[in-house]
């Protein structure tokens, strides 16, 4: 059973005591999530000394140590973790109740900040964003295009589409799409350098490497033949990129084989402008995840998440895909 915050705090407290603990608990939650007194003070528009004093006051009222302080870092105690989980759970209950009430009386309204990577996710989703705004004129959408891992708290992001499961423990994560990495080149490339006939031939060609979100380059790639056979190939490219969509520009010069996705080259393949290299192989499997903060459950966020999932479901429905295990 879910109880309201005032019940957990104690019915014997008066309203001023409850309000004081509630406000101090909100400050503690910011410290728990950001792990920096100075940044919390800046975010809340108060002095750093005030943040410290309010946390100490909360500890005195609860008769618990919530934070261990040192000159180097902030460490939350076990009691601090338990209090954060309990308080945020109840605070989310209250916020969601208010949002549900507002939603039941009003049309969708508010602002959504969405972080989205360049490439296939942008290719699938962006064409429909303007239509969503047209259908919901009280909603403002801010699209943040980036390939680095999004920090939802620091960057004030409501939702993010990412290629790797984030390390943050305060996030809700849902897989929404998966596809394959392939190799592509132009007919001009083949006329200049020839066309690879098998996996061993790839060593003689300039093939773009891929820079992952953590800035590393994975030189070991698991390859799967359509008949199910699997291979590992190792290579070190002298040309690497961090966006498969960037390869669409690079490929035009006709001097490199680029990594890419069928979804990005559908038109070019139909027009004969791009050729798939060794089409009987899948060179990697990639997935995309929709993430949000645990406590971000507003009706608008839920509605926009459903819209995003429908866009990707539509693409999945129109794609003939076979599931492959993810490459770590």
From TrEMBL:
Keyword terms: DNA-binding, Transcription, Transcription regulation
InterPro entries given in the database record: LysR-type_TF_proteobact-type, LysR_HTH_N, LysR_subst-bd, WH-like_DNA-bd_sf, WH_DNA-bd_sf
Similarity section: Belongs to the LysR transcriptional regulatory family.
All copies of domain HTH lysR-type, residue ranges: 27-77
Keyword rRNA-binding applies: no
Keyword Endoplasmic reticulum annotated: no
Species the sequence originates in: Aquella oligotrophica
Source taxon at top rank: Bacteria
Molecular function GO labels: DNA-binding transcription factor activity; sequence-specific DNA binding
GO BP term, example: DNA-templated transcription
The protein, known as: HTH lysR-type domain-containing protein
PANTHER family, A to Z: HTH-TYPE TRANSCRIPTIONAL ACTIVATOR TTDR-RELATED, HTH-TYPE TRANSCRIPTIONAL REGULATOR
């Amino acid at each position: 059973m879910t109880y309201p915050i005032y019940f957990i705090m104690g019915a014997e407290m008066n309203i001023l005591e409850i309000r004081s603990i509630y406000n101090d608990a909100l400050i503690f939650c910011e410290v728990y999530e950001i792990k920096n007194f100075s940044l919390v003070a800046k975010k809340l528009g108060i002095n750093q000394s005030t943040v410290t004093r309010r946390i100490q006051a909360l500890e005195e009222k609860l008769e618990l140590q919530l934070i261990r302080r040192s000159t180097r870092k902030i460490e939350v105690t076990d009691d601090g973790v338990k209090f954060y989980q309990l308080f945020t759970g109840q605070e989310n209950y209250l916020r969601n109740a208010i949002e549900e009430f507002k939603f039941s009386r009003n049309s969708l309204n508010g602002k959504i900040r969405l972080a989205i990577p360049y490439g296939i996710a942008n290719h699938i989703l962006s064409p429909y964003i303007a239509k969503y705004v047209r259908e919901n004129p009280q909603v403002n959408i801010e699209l943040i295009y980036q390939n680095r891992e999004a920090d939802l708290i620091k960057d004030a992001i409501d939702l993010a589409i990412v290629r790797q499961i984030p390390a943050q423990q305060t996030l809700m994560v849902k897989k929404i799409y998966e596809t394959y990495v392939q190799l592509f080149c132009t007919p001009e490339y083949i006329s200049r350098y020839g066309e690879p006939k098998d996996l061993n031939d790839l060593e003689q060609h300039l093939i773009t490497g891929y820079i992952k979100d953590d800035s590393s380059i994975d030189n070991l790639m698991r390859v799967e033949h359509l008949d199910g056979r699997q291979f590992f190939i190792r290579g070190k490219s002298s040309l690497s990129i961090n966006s498969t969509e960037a390869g669409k520009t690079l490929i035009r010069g006709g001097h490199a084989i680029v990594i890419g996705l069928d979804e990005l080259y559908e038109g070019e393949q139909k027009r004969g402008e791009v050729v798939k290299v060794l089409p009987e192989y899948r060179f990697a499997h990639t997935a995309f995840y929709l993430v949000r903060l645990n406590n971000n459950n507003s009706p608008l966020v839920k509605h926009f998440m459903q819209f995003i999932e429908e866009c990707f479901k539509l693409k999945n429905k129109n794609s003939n895909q076979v599931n492959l295990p993810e490459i770590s």
